[in-house]
Each structure stands twice: as C-alpha cells, then as structure tokens.
Amino acid sequence: MLLPESCSVKVDGNECRLPPSFVVSIKSHDGEYMVAVVCEQHKEGLQYKLASMQNEGKLPAGKIQFQTITAVVTDCVKGMEEDYVEIDLKRGIGSERKP
Ligand SMILES: [Zn+2]
To answer: How far, in Å, is the centroid of ligand 1 from the Cα of 74?
Structure first.
C-alpha cells in the first residue's frame, strides 16, 4: 500500500509536514474506507474533525479506526542517521587536508 509521506492535517491553512504515524479509516457496513494519514500530534484533533464530518453527512457513518504505521517511520529515521554520519566523516577528511 502506497501512503502519503506526511500527515493529512492542515493547521491554519499550512500542511503538517510530520511523517504520519497512523492510517485512518472508517469501517462502515459496506466496507472500510481509508480517509487520511495522521501524525501522533494531530491524532485526537483529526478524530474529532472526522466525527463532526460524519455528523454533517460528509463522510460515511461508521467506526473511525487508527492503524499504527511502524515500518515506514522506522526506516525513515534509520536512513536519516546514516546520512548524518556520512556527512560528518566527509567533513573530518576535508579538514585534515587543509594545512
Ligand atoms: Zn500532523
């Protein structure tokens, strides 16, 4: 399953750039719909928003479910650490060459 790279929430018109921690779906009588992905920080706010959208009839009625995304987040953090180490090593070599 292909997931968006950042949280679906907008705060004051600005998109949240945090990596998502949960897949949000609505489980209704005729199936399960993925509606968004959300970071840890905006989980409660999004849940509240979705519930009110269900009340207004903008989303199908059903149970709002949060599924934890584990693999994606772990891979991302690991990759960043490796990049950081590599940059540090190059800097070290560069400064040794200078008189
Ligand atoms: Zn967010």
So the answer is: 17
